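Write out this protein's structure.
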Amino acid sequence: MNNSSWLEILQNEVQALGLMAVAQKLKVSKATVSQVVNGKYKANTHTIEQKVRGTFMAQSVRCPILGDIAINICLDHQGRKFAATNHIRVQLYKACRSGCPNSKLGVNKS
């Protein structure tokens, strides 16, 4: 695994791809990426860090439903509203809200 910090990786990706492309990959605003890169982000950076680690550093977690998945994909599933569109989506919704060790729901980390 790369020993660079997640912030260094983010800065390198912004330099290589640009703010807009990085923001789109992370599914956050361009302003958020800019503030984090420039050390002006006022909120907790935990979620941004996890998105960077999953998207650009290939870090994963063990999902009780899907197996090994990228951290950013785990966060995406946690953020989805309930929809009974298929049984996997229902299982994910329930798992994310009932004690999954990877869940950030109910934890004050932004």
